[in-house]
Amino acid sequence: MKRLLINGDAHLQKGTKIEYGDEELICFSVTRNGDYHGPRRVQLACIVGVTEEYSTFIEEEYIAHFLETESINSEDVKIVI
Question: What is the pLDDT along the chain (81 residues), one digit of tens a residue?
């Protein structure tokens, strides 16, 4: 499980399966920042992981501050489903 900071609007929703790099991940949580105030481009803060990690996310058996964080552009994300 990790946090992706996506610069630009990738049109993601909770439960969307994405392809980033060479792996397929599921968006467990999507937070949209910068609609009214902030940078010119919207930024999406997503918690993503594989299917096996979903129960860990639901039961909150992780510490959000200690997740690996990557900042990427919206063009680097491909929506699978």
Answer: 999 999 999 999 999 999 998 999 999 999 999 888 777 889 999 999 999 999 999 999 999 899 999 999 999 999 997
Closest CA to 61 of 5, 13, 1, 3: 1
E-strand spans in 2-79?
2-7, 17-20, 23-33, 43-49, 68-73, 77-79
Q: Among residues 6, 29, 30, 28, which one has the least CA distance to residue 78?
A: 6
User: CA 78: distance to chain centroid?
Assistant: 12
The residues that bridge with 42 in the sheet, in sequence order, are none
Task: Give Cα 4 distance to the centre of its chain.
Answer: 4
pTM, full prediction: 0.86
